[in-house]
Amino acid sequence: MPEHNEKILLADDEHDILMLVNFHLQRAGYQVILAENGKEALEKAEQEKPVLAILDRMMPEMDGMEVCRRLREVNPGIYIIMLTALATEEHRYGGFEAGADDYIIKPFNAKELTLKVKAMVRHANEKQAALAQAGTGPLSEGNLLAKTFPTSNGLQVNQDRRQVLKNGLEIELTKLEFDLLQFLYEHPNLVFSRDRLLEQVWNYDYFGDERVVDVHMARLRKKLEEDPSHPRYIQTIRGVGYKYTP
Questions:
Q1: Could you give all domains of the chain from N- to C-terminal order, each with its CATH number?
Q2: Are 181 and 220 in contact (CB under 8 A)?
Q3: Cβ-contact 155, 168 below 8 angstroms
Q4: What is the mean pLDDT of residues 180-209?
Q5: What is the CA radius of gyration of the chain?
């Protein structure tokens, strides 16, 4: 059995699902932290600092949506997967708006869920390794400029520190939002399909609704653009995908 140091928070009030997913994650070598309601999930997340959380949307004491929002407030970098039997488009988009990185409809394949977890954790580890290699010295002006892509219409992306500045002010992004922006920023004026973005940024073969990309793009635009309905940086190429315009 492989061994990992990564902690995964798993919260669901359905005991059978909790045990099934727990079995597959432990078999994959992860340390699994179990919770059967939203309040317990939030408390254990604060204590254990997991790299990823899997949350049932409908839980007692505090629902998964509220847990997701609160986790995002205290730890913008955590990866979050929402599990739910609510399959409408409105519910899916609501989950993404709350801060989920992925949204999986019950019933689901536990092995496929585990593959998603592996890909997300691998992605997190790669980014952490890059940060460690870059070092954590003082953020002087010279140090910032040395590790930052060229300014593009007031926007600066510091890859090593995973920091985004717009007109000198820092913009707080989740891990996935930063990865998405960085990938587009590194390839200006190139158009990428949703499939390609899922492969390059999400780092796995996505099964489900490709519009997860659209939702994350919308969230990113809200943070970057003066007028998200008329974006300056991230352009939609109808019928094809997205591109970054410097």
A1: 7-127 (3.40.50.2300), 137-244 (1.10.10.10)
A2: yes
A3: no
A4: 83
A5: 18
